[in-house]
Design a protein that fits this description.
Elements (H helix, E strand, L loop, with lengths): L1 H22 L4 H27 L11 H25 L3 E6 L2 H34 L1 H15 L8 H22 L3 H17 L14 E5 L3 H4 L9 H20 L9 H4 L6
Antiparallel strand pairs: 1-2
Helix pairs in contact: 1-2, 1-4, 2-4, 3-7, 3-9, 4-5, 4-7, 5-6, 6-7, 6-9
Pfam family, one: Rce1-like
GO molecular function: metallopeptidase activity
Keywords: Hydrolase, Membrane, Metalloprotease, Protease, Transmembrane, Transmembrane helix
């Protein structure tokens, strides 16, 4: 019952907010305002429904250390994106043609903020966290990663390979980031940093979603395994490799910190993992 209540509450904010942001794509400042409002309201709604259904403080979105955790996630996400774009550029498949659209980047700030926050609350805050309590960390990571990847099949330029790539480099990695830190702020920052750097700065397609132009007007051309094709660099083997490395690092941290929940003890141990 709590799973349904939490899912519906956050999903309602996500659907209304993201639809509003999408409708405002022609007005970047309105899109920024609506995206920011959606992100804030989604966190507040998540915190409220967790208190209501679990009778506890929602420490995974607590204020203490939130700014620093978001900052760490941002740095990781931007660095990961920069490394992937650099790898593609060194092979001659990414070229900057000039400046893109600063106002487009402003609109993307709002769009990416709303998407990153609502998706992390839904997939890691609700789905991963509750599934982990029942099945343990490994099963929850695998299951939610696949579901997260499959959800991107509805994007305009989606592909089966793109969904698989997203599962590996994002679904698994972001779940591992939450498992390692037991805060949603790090995966939120990482998710936003990756998405905005990819579309808002480097001018690349994000998840085959028909992304608006960012700060740079750039061209990606060449073999799909390198560039990701119409799906964007998230379909690149570089992105998959980077995601695998970060997933391994986060899981190692989770293991060292005692945050990995074994399946046989999932129900009993989950309550002890709150920061």
């Amino acid at each position: 019952m709590r799973f349904a209540e939490q899912l519906v509450t956050v999903l309602a904010v996500a659907l209304v907010g993201n639809q509003g942001v999408a409708a405002a794509r022609g007005n970047p400042w309105l899109a920024l305002a609506l995206g920011t409002a959606t992100a804030v309201l989604a966190v507040l709604a998540y915190a409220w429904v967790v208190r209501r259904t679990e009778r506890r403080a929602p420490v995974e979105v607590g204020r203490d250390g939130a700014a620093a955790a978001i900052g760490r996630g941002l740095l990781i996400g931007v660095a990961m994106c920069g490394a992937v774009i650099l790898g593609i550029a060194l092979l001659g498949h990414y070229e900057v043609d000039g400046w893109g659209s600063p106002t487009g980047a402003v609109g993307l700030l709002g769009f990416m903020a709303a998407a990153a926050v609502t998706e992390e609350l839904l997939y890691r805050g609700v789905l991963f966290r509750i599934v982990e309590e029942r099945t343990g960390t490994w099963v929850a990571l695998l299951f939610t990663g696949v579901v997260f990847g499959a959800s991107h099949l509805f994007n305009p330029d989606a592909s089966p390979w793109g969904a698989v790539a997203i599962s590996i480099e994002a679904g698994f990695m972001l779940a591992a980031a939450y498992a390692a830190t037991r805060t949603l702020w790090v995966p939120i920052g990482l998710h936003f940093g990756w998405n905005f750097a990819l579309g808002g700065v480097f001018g690349a397609e994000v998840s085959g979603g028909d992304t608006a132009k960012g700060l740079l007007d750039a061209t990606l051309s060449g073999p799909t395994p390198i560039t990701g094709g119409a799906f964007g660099p998230e379909g690149s083997l570089y992105a998959v490799a980077a995601g695998v490395v970060l997933t391994a690092v986060f899981l190692l941290l989770a293991h060292r910190r005692g945050h990995v929940v074994p399946r046989r003890r999932a129900d009993r141990v989950a309550a002890t993992l709150a920061p």
